[in-house]
Amino acid sequence: MRLIIQRVTEARVLVDKEIKGEIGTGFLVLVGFGREDDANLPGSAAWNKMLDKLVNLRIFTDDDGRFNLSLKDVAGDLLLVSQFTLYADCRKGRRPSFTDACVPELADSLFGRFVEDARAKAPATVATGVFGAEMFLDFTNWGPVTITLDSRDF
């Protein structure tokens, strides 16, 4: 599982020109699952660590301008967007290979569970895109601050 976390002042996801998810200050998180991820991932140590990191990562600034505040500290929102392209392999040729991405049926299930678990831990709104849809993201990256988390690290 990979997460790309972007600190934002606002974010929204559109499908067919309709807003499907929208947040204020918080994190826009691109969520991808790889072929090594399986149905046992939810509830595992890596899964729990990723969720814990997501809501407790201190990348909001305090009054001194230091990264000391977490999503929980600022009661920030989450916009979770499934993105299989986080597992693109561009080492050969000019067209990315996605053979390292999780199969769609399992990825859909894992993403749904990740959303559920994030809602249980998040301090405020948790919005999502539409799994498998062509989505348009509109957001203001604050900083910019972008952090990558990979479950293989935990």
How would you characterize the overall build of this protein?
The chain has 154 residues and is of the alpha/beta class. It has a single domain, classed as D-tyrosyl-tRNA(Tyr) deacylase (D-tyrosyl-trna(Tyr) Deacylase, Chain: A), CATH 3.50.80.10. Helix content is 19%, strand content 36%. The protein has two helices and eight strands; from the N terminus they run βββαβββαββ. The protein has helices at 45-56, 104-121, and strands spanning 2-15, 18-23, 26-32, 60-61, 67-69, 77-82, 126-128, 136-150. Strands 1, 2, 3, 6, 7 and 8 form a six-stranded mixed β-sheet that branches. Strand 1 (2-15) and strand 2 form a beta hairpin. It is globular. The N and C termini lie close together (11 Å). The mean pLDDT is 97.
